[in-house]
């Protein structure tokens, strides 16, 4: 269904388009706290984004994402 709407495989779930601490923006790939692995496409996207000056992270659960976002804006 996502492919039909134009979504691209591997692109992280969340984007905060605000530059901070030398980064162009923050991308977060959300995963469940238990289980949840990243696909090869997701791994490639995260590496590419980091190479391009973005901070791209995998977060297992809300609390992990909250900590990354708070650190990004601190």
CATH T-level topology: Trna Endonuclease, Chain: A, domain 1
Largest sheet: 3 strands, mixed
Cα-atom radius of gyration: 13 Å
Residues in helices, as a percent range: 25-40%
**Helix tally?**
2
What form results from the Cα inertia axes? globular
Regions with little confidence, pLDDT below 50 for 5+ residues:
none
Separation of the first and last Cα atoms: 37 Å
Query: Which structural category do the helix and sheet elements fall into?
Result: alpha+beta
Strand content: 15-25%
- The SSE order reads EEHEH
Concise account of the structure shown:
The protein contains 2 helices and 3 strands, in the order ββαβα. It is α+β, with helices and mostly antiparallel strands.
Q: How would you characterize the overall build of this protein?
A:
The chain is an alpha+beta fold. It has one domain (9-73): Trna Endonuclease, Chain: A, domain 1 (3-Layer(aba) Sandwich), CATH 3.40.1350.10. Helix content is 32%, strand content 20%. The protein contains 2 helices and 3 strands. The protein has helices at residues 40-51, 62-73; strands at 14-16, 26-31, 55-60. Strands 1-2-3 form a 3-stranded mixed beta sheet, with helices on both faces. Helix 1 (40-51) links the parallel strand 2 (26-31) and strand 3 (55-60). The radius of gyration is 13 Å and the shape is globular.
Show the helix and strand layout:
Layout: E1 14-16, E2 26-31, H1 40-51, E3 55-60, H2 62-73
Parallel strand pairs: 2-3
Antiparallel strand pairs: 1-2
């Amino acid at each position: 269904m996502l492919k039909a709407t134009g979504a691209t495989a591997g692109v992280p779930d969340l984007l905060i388009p605000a530059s901070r601490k030398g980064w162009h923006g923050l991308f977060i790939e959300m995963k469940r706290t238990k289980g949840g692995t990243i696909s090869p496409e997701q791994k490639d996207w995260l590496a590419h984004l980091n190479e391009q000056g973005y901070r791209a992270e995998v977060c297992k659960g809300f609390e992990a994402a909250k900590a990354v976002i708070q650190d990004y804006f601190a």
